[in-house]
Amino acid sequence: MSPENDGTNRNIPVHVGIIMDGNGRWAKQRGLPRTAGHLEGLKTAKRMVKEASDRGVKYLSLYVFSTENWKRAAEEVSFILGLVKQYLLKEMDFSRENKIRVRHAGNMAGLPRDIAEEIRKACEETKDFTGMQVILALNYGGRDEIVRAVNRALDAVNKNAESSAGPRGGVTEETVRNFLDNPDIPDPDLVIRTAGEFRVSNFLLWEGAYAEYYISPKFWPDWTGDDLEEAIDSYGKRERRFGGVKEART
Ligand code: IPE
Ligand code: IPE
Ligand code: MG
C-alpha cells in the first residue's frame, strides 16, 4: 500500500490499528474503579477518531474487546459492552457530519444480540459514507478470525469441487484473505499499542504481518492528538522492505 501525502511532505499511514490498552491502570493510578478507566478510554477513542480523520488516515481499527476479554469479571465485561452500545447510539450524528463509516471486525455470533444489532445498524447506516472508516474490533481475536476465514474458504472450495466451477484444491493465501472479516480493507500500515506492553494480544495477526509497530508508554485515556502525531512521524521515518532489499540510490 503506497502511503499518502498530506501536503506536509510526509508519509501518512493509510490504515492505523490501535491496541487501546491501559484503561485499568489509568484508573488504579487515581484510586478509581476500572470502569472509570473504560469511560475515559471511550472519550479518548472519540477524540482519536477525529484526530486520525483530520490527519488523512483512511482506516482506523480500534481494538475494543478481545475474544480473551470475556475472562474478566462479568461487571467489567457488561460495562464495556454497555459503553460500546452507548457510543453506537450517540455518535451517529458525529459519523454523519464527518462522513465516518463504521465497520466491525470480530465474531458477531458471540456478541449479545442487542449489541450485534446496534453494530449492524451503524454499519448499514454509514455504509455509503466516504470519509474515514472506523473498524471496531469487538469480540475480535486474530486466531478466531483466521479460523473462521479458513472454514469459509474451505466451504467455498468444496462447493467449487462439487459444481466443478472455479478453482479446486486446498485454500491459498488469497482465498483465506478473501474470507477475512473485511477483505476489502488494506492491511494496517501502522499498529499502535498504548500502555507500554510489547505484545500483540491477538490483534490483526494475519493483516499485521508487515505492519510497523509503535509502542507508547502512556495509558490510553491519557492519549492526545500530539501522541498520534508522534506515532505518525515515527512511521514516516521507517523503511519498509516487505522482505526485499533497499533500492540502490544513485
Ligand atoms: C484496555 O484497557 C481495554 C480493554 C482491554 C477492554 P485494560 O482494561 O486492559 O487496562 P489495563 O491493561 O488493565 O491497564
Ligand atoms: C488487548 O488488551 C485487548 C484490547 C485492547 C481490547 P489486553 O489488556 O486484553 O491484553 P493483555 O491481556 O495485556 O495481553
Ligand atoms: Mg490491558
Give the topology, please:
Elements: E1 4-5, E2 11-12, E3 15-19, H1 23-29, H2 34-54, E4 59-66, H3 74-90, H4 92-98, E5 101-105, H5 113-125, E6 133-140, H6 142-163, H7 173-178, E7 190-193, E8 212-215, H8 225-237
The structure holds 3-methylbut-3-enyl trihydrogen diphosphate (2 copies) and magnesium ion.
Keywords:
globular, 250 residues, two-stranded antiparallel ribbon, alpha/beta, 2 domains, binds 3-methylbut-3-enyl trihydrogen diphosphate, Undecaprenyl pyrophosphate synthetase, 6-stranded parallel β-sheet
Descriptive overview:
α1 (23-29) crosses α2 (34-54) and α2 (34-54) runs parallel beside α3. The chain has 8 helices and 8 strands. It is globular, with a radius of gyration of 19 Å. β1 and β2 (11-12) form a beta hairpin. The strands form 2 sheets. Strands 5-6-4-3-7-8 form a 6-stranded parallel beta sheet, sandwiched between helices. 42% of the residues lie in helices and 15% in strands. It folds into 2 domains: 11-140 and 187-236, Decaprenyl diphosphate synthase-like (Undecaprenyl pyrophosphate synthetase, 3-Layer(aba) Sandwich); 142-185, no CATH class. It is an alpha/beta fold.
Briefly summarize what is shown.
The protein contains eight helices and eight strands. The chain is α/β, with parallel strands linked by helices and 250 residues long.
